[in-house]
Amino acid sequence: MHEDPPAPVRTAPGPPPAFASAPPPGPPPGHSATTIERGSFCLARCTCGWSGPARRSRDRARTDAAEHLATP
């Protein structure tokens, strides 16, 4: 007895994979924050003129810079 092969299954296109989304936006143009040490203190500065408070914690100064870059 002869049987025909099964017909190919057709599916509707689904949503694109999650990894295909656009990367998160970077810092606004003209912004580049760094940390500067002055004695036992560290502070964050940006090329736009912004300056964070002096901190004894370098990690907190880096967080200040990251928060500045994240704000619109």
What does this structure look like?
There is one protein chain. This protein has a two-stranded antiparallel ribbon with strand order 1-2. A hairpin with a 2-residue loop joins strand 1 (33-38) and strand 2 (41-46). With 72 residues, it is an alpha+beta fold. The chain is rod-shaped, with a radius of gyration of 26 Å. It is 18% helix and 17% strand.
Share of helical residues: 10-25%
Q: Which strands sit side by side, in order, in the main sheet?
A: 1-2
Order of helices and strands: EEH
The helix-and-strand class reads: alpha+beta
Distance between the termini: 72 Å
Tell me about the largest β-sheet.
2 strands, antiparallel
Short description:
By secondary structure, this protein is an alpha+beta fold.
Question: Which structural traits does this protein have?
Answer:
72 residues, alpha+beta
Write the layout of secondary structure elements.
Elements lengths: L32 E6 L2 E6 L11 H13 L2
Antiparallel strand pairs: 1-2
